[in-house]
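Hey Z.,

So I finally got round to the iron/sulfur cluster thing we talked about over coffee. Here's the setup:
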Amino acid sequence: MTDSEGNLGDCTRIRMYPQVQIIDAPPHSIFFSPCNHRWVKVNADGRRILESFRNEQVLGEWFAKYVGNHGGDEIGTRLSQFISSQVKAGILQVDGFAPAVDWRSAIDPPNLQKVYLEVTDRCNLKCHYCYNAWNRQRSQKRQRRPMSEDDWYRLVEEIHTMGVLEIVITGGEPLLCGWVVKLARHIRQLGIKTTLLTNGTLLSSDLARQLVECFDRVNISLDSSVEEKHDFGRGKGSFRKVVEGVRALRQAGHRAIIVKPVLAQHNLEGFADLPRFVREELGCFLYTPTLCLPFRAPDGSINRSFTPELEDILQALGAFSANFSRYYPMSERPPIQIGPHVSCGLGKRIVSVDSHGDVFPCQALHDPDLVCGNWYDSSIQDIRNSSDLIKQLAELSILDVRTCGQCPWALLCSGGCRAFAFGIYHDLKAFNEDFCGVLLESARSRLVEFASRCETASITT
Ligand SMILES: C[S@@+](CC[C@H](N)C(=O)[O-])C[C@H]1O[C@@H](n2cnc3c(N)ncnc32)[C@H](O)[C@@H]1O
Ligand code: SF4
Ligand code: SF4
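And the result:
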């Protein structure tokens, strides 16, 4: 029992929440409580104390046992403070009380925040694993005309009134459209953050100077520091061009160039060298790799031959992470978020509009079965209000995904990319069975990274 000020009494029953997960992060340990999405980082003494509450203890008896061993009032006071702090932190439970949190409504604001504009489906490259290849094929048979420059301006005005925070311009290869710079400048003048996704092969010095003025961030696709590996996936000569492109952008003074690699079967070897190459030879930031998604090939079949096996991924990512920490020390990395997330926001906080006006829940889900509506017929707002698919996605929660719903890591992991689940199982609610190991590892390391920036809740006895 606690007194009126919440102090713990001798009869208080205390135990660690049974769902608490412990992660080794030498010299510390992290205790993560999935019931309330709270965590603490403790030293070895703190860990011993917390572990002694795995089974329920009556506090007075616990003190008699432990403080009796250690002796002394000062120790007793510090232990009391530590135990109280762990109750407040949500790691220890008092008298069997467990919080009832409705995560779905608590953490998922439904307003639209980010819109992807696929300004063209044309591309100067033919990457073997491109998830848009099939869409390009489909375009040739479509009834709708491709969206014009004026159409994109009208669409931008419309989403501006919806309070969108960020517009990502992508393709195909967006730099094939000469007017992209002007459009991006306009978007930025409206106060919306602009991001460009490009393969980087068309970046002349002149164009690079223009991009500095109109894109807050430029994401460039580069898959390997080994020329043949990158070229194998993206086409001969592309490595040299993209490296020149990044250098041109650097020389023009762009400060937010981010290299975005795809980890696929063909670039596993040598992948770990990418952090060194991007930091030392290109001088820009590097994103966590995206796993190569199974994709719909031009003939309509699902191709997963570029997606590596779990063991290979874990090995490649392990070596990559070690080098990443070396070349991008924590102090230089932007802060990360660790959730809680019940969904990545597809269809809710994010939509993607393709070059023919079709609206999809995400830029990696341009599948004909996932068309929410067409902008030539209805505004984005009307599509959001009326599309059955968007309504279903608004309800989509990791807590409803098989296996993930019962997993203690769910709100940290989010069950991985839904495009992956869709690519493999053609089901947005499918459990990413093959990749659960990678996802769990990545959720844990995000927590370790996050915790390493914070103070330790420590006790020394
Ligand atoms: C479709 S591209 C369009 C922008 C530009 N052409 C480019 O390559 O950066 C957008 C992003 O999707 C990535 N991508 C393409 N196919 C993929 C796949 N099967 N799995 C994961 N990412 C993929 C590309 O590497 C790129 O970073
Ligand atoms: S450059 Fe981008 S859009 Fe073009 S084929 Fe490659 S991944 Fe696809
Ligand atoms: S993918 Fe695996 S680790 Fe992630 S929430 Fe689902 S079951 Fe848990």
